[in-house]
Amino acid sequence: MGKQDEPLHVSSKAELKRREKQQKKAKSGGFESLGLSPNVYRGIKRKGYRVPTPIQRKTMPLILSGNDVVAMARTGSGKTAAFLVPMLERLKQHEPQGGVRALILSPTRDLALQTLKFTKELGKFTDLRISLLVGGDSMETQFEELAQNPDIIIATPGRLMHHLSEVDDMTLRTVEYVVFDEADCLFDMGFAEQLHKILAQLSENRQTLLFSATLPSVLAEFAKAGLRDPQLVRLDVDNKISPDLKLVFFTLRQEEKNAALLYLVREQISSDEQSLIFVSTRHHVEFLNVLFREEGIEPSVCYGEMDQDARKIHISRFRARKTMFLIVTDVAARGIDIPLLDNVINWDFPPKPKIFVHRVGRAARAGRTGAAFSFVTSEDLPNLLDLHLFLSKPIRAAPTEEEVLLDKEGVFSKIDNAIASGETVYGRLPQTVIDLASDRIRETIDSSADLISLQKTCSNAFRMYSKSKPLPSKESIRRAKDLPREGLHPIFKNILEGGELKALAFSERLKTFRPKQTILEAEGETAKSKHRQGPRQWVDVMKRKRAVHEEVINLVHKQRSAKHVEEELPLENISPKGKNMKGTRGLKKRKTASFKDEEFYINSVPTNHHTEAGLAVKGDQGFGSNRLDNAVLDLVADDSSGMQKHKSVYHWDKRGKKYVKLNNGDRVTASGKIKTESGAKVKTNKTGIYKKWKERSHNKISLKGISLGDHDGEAMNRAGAGNQRFSGNKRKFGAGKNKHSVPNAHVRTEVKNLDQIRKERQKKATRIQTMKNQPKRGKKKSGKKGNRGKANETDAIPFLFPKEFQRRQQTHSAFYKGDLPCFETMARGLKKHLKRLNAPKHWMLDKLGGAFAPKPSSGPHKSRECLPLILILRNRLKYALTYREVISILMQRHVLVDGKVRTDKTYPAGFMDVVSIPKTNENFRLLYDTKGRFRLHSVRDEEAKYKLCKVRSVQFGQKGIPYLNTYDGRTIRYPDPLIKANDTIKLDLETNKIADFIKFDVGNVVMVTGGRNRGRVGVIKNREKHKGSFETIHVQDATGHEFATRLCNVFTIGKGTKPWLSLPKGKGIKLSIIEEARKRLASQAAVTA
């Protein structure tokens, strides 16, 4: 009995240990303590999250309990997951008859795309369907998404309102979970009209959440959101920016900004660090983009009115670290999430402290360090003071060169201690550095006509920007005039030596030099030295005048300095630690003699007045305004039309016969038009887009909580579950083993609507009438074997199964037209693998080779020696994820091959072809590497204007006209008589004429395009001719290695040893395994050293 009881005792011990472990996990404060469902918890663990962030720990229990929540935390603190995880937990799974149950509104397209990506990752193990509705995308594509009956809609207000006005069967009454992401921006003037109509269609029993990095404590400004007893969660009110972020402020003139920016990019910022550059308008974005490219730096750009496809391409290139700089405006940057961003550069200082927090919050995320560099002009000094009042941080000027010369070590030690204690130091850049960079930029601009025109446009745009941006507080404007003169910024303390510091100190003294004598006294002294009597009397007059006025002037200076010391109290004591900068002793004496009792005294102005004023959604009254009825767009627009909207709007009152000023939030809808995110104005009534799509696709949108009842509903369910854009996981809805979690959810409903019944009856009547009119068959026997009158068993298909017959006919015609994808064609041999052939498309999208890879269309190149455009855009450049996105890019005529627009996704691009994408200013040439693989080699614009072609033959046509054929299928008439077969011609792609040619001779450099040595580059050493066999070419590369190949595999690329085009990395030199290992070890040793 004891032996039988022993295993039971062991199992109970194991069970006890397992329960204790679970209890420890539940008490650990992780996501386990929230009681999430297994599918949601798996998605969180897959993302790598272990412990909730402070904002998640505070808000998730409140949201899961059903409360309305208003949350504020700094950028990068995990706010998106804070509302996505409770949403996934509440929805759990897809409900075919549930309609739209969750709505997430974002102010910008980029933020909506980022939220969509994050939602898919967290909901990977659920079957929830997601639809993205943003401006810039096709309405028909979004109709298809809505027809899949999504559970979650992520949208921008303009496009969502466009859909609501277009589709009758679309309603938001079933929405039970609403999120306003970046709520302070959503409730501003720019979205007032859209939100007014959207909120009117939402249910009153919804749960409303407001999230942003900057929110006021007074919720009266957000009363229109319909909050019911909201719970306010505000974190990081004192630390609004990351403590790991280093703030650097440079004072300079407006015309010196370009030079300072290039100096920072080249000298201060490492080449392996990614940086975000903020400018005021889109014109500055275009100017800096051209300037950077002229200087050999390739940036990415993004602004508000940029084309959606171009914006995706630029941001994807920056995320893939193909470019290290992203130039953006405030309108476009809100929502761009770059996880590994290192630096932020404020080319234009932000007009509001709240915008500064959003800008610099892109760096120093998730425990990483970062730096924020800001350029401050004399006009921006009041904004700098407002910013530090908002941040509750003290500020001081950098010590002057004279102070540094007197006690260099002591001054810098004080500055280091001040920075360590949280103070901000602002200073100048070295003038020598600015002068050198300015001369370089001036030469670059003068040599480029584009930069000259763009510079003029930028100056006009900045003038409009200065008029439209909000003004700082009057108190800061007054105090900025009394700020002390600053010296060099402390980050340059190790750059300048003693001699340079003395020279700078002398130049600064010259700037502030004011002679005591007036011009009259100076002339008098000159006359005295020359023994002239005229102006001497003026000297005596000025001496008597100075003796009388000097005491009064000195008294006024003393009063001003004392007043300045008294007014330093609000700024210096703004630090949480109470550390003063100037006049500390005098202030303490005044404080002890004050009548205020610090324990019981109640001030008329709250201690956090400046912080709340900066967070509030205010009107054009500037920083410090207390009006709550006005709300303007936080971000100053980056184009002229947007700047015009920031000004006061006047509307003609027909009854009063006068112009009346509209308050922020007021709407004038007499025109009956709305403006979408793409900038297009559309009518609020129906435009017929949805009706045309419905007739063409035989589909419809039904978001009233009714399941799909179309005759193709089952096929749509399979497509919706297989398409990753609508589903958050890889489960195949209604196919195979992965059934839907709801019993019989995959079964199509048998309830038919009126249209389906009418259509079915019509089909039946047509089928019966057709069969009646057919002659009887099978009785007459004629012909050789008597089979002419016998009916074939496929003859009944058109009458008994019209849909099957139509599908076969379409497949048959598509096969011969070449429209049928390769995975839908019938394979030879055994048919056991037909299940894979009929699989959804996205199964095969990532395959580059094999039977299921996209095949190139017929062309001059062999099928194994070319790349179709779909592989170039999707697999090589990563500009698209699916067939649909590739077709969208090509149909918008964004891709050129050899200077001509190509819209065929399977167009074969071969060796030496030039692929250009004007939207991104990129050019690539298809070359081979030493391992025989295609390489998209980036080339400059000058090199992209021509290509090299190998001559196949030279012949004479009709009337003796000479012409030549090239291996890429070109025919060129009247070539140079010296050109022969196997020579190489340099073809101008613009004029399609021969610019030059290279003879196939010994001593010229060639590239091997076939065989085992494909991709190697070398010089022809010898040519062996063999009658009746292949000719052999001996080639020697740059390292001295010699190899042989056939004549047909050699392509001449230059005269002598200098090629006519740039080569990929490695210059066509093939290394052995040992040589590669030695090279790799040498590079590692150099890095460690």
UniProtKB/TrEMBL annotation:
Any GO BP annotation: translation
PROSITE patterns: HELICASE_ATP_BIND_1, HELICASE_CTER, Q_MOTIF, RIBOSOMAL_S4E, S4
Stretches assigned to the DEAD-box RNA helicase Q domain: 29-57
GO terms for cellular component: cytosol; nucleus; ribonucleoprotein complex; ribosome
Biased composition (Basic and acidic residues): 1-18
UniProt xrefs under InterPro entries: DBP10_C, DDX54/DBP10_DEAD-box_helicase, DEAD/DEAH_box_helicase_dom, DEAD_box_RNA_helicase, Helicase_ATP-bd, Helicase_C-like, KOW, Ribosomal_eS4
The protein's Enzyme Commission number: 3.6.4.13
Catalytic activity: ATP + H2O = ADP + phosphate + H(+)
Biased composition annotated in UniProt, kind: Basic residues: 728-740, 774-788
Domain Helicase C-terminal residue range list: 256-406
Keywords noted in UniProt: ATP-binding, Helicase, Hydrolase, Nucleotide-binding, Ribonucleoprotein, Ribosomal protein, RNA-binding, rRNA-binding
Record Pfam families: 40S_S4_C, DBP10CT, DEAD, Helicase_C, KOW, Ribosomal_S4e, RS4NT
Family: Belongs to the DEAD box helicase family. DDX54/DBP10 subfamily.
The protein, known as: RNA helicase
Primary gene name: RH29
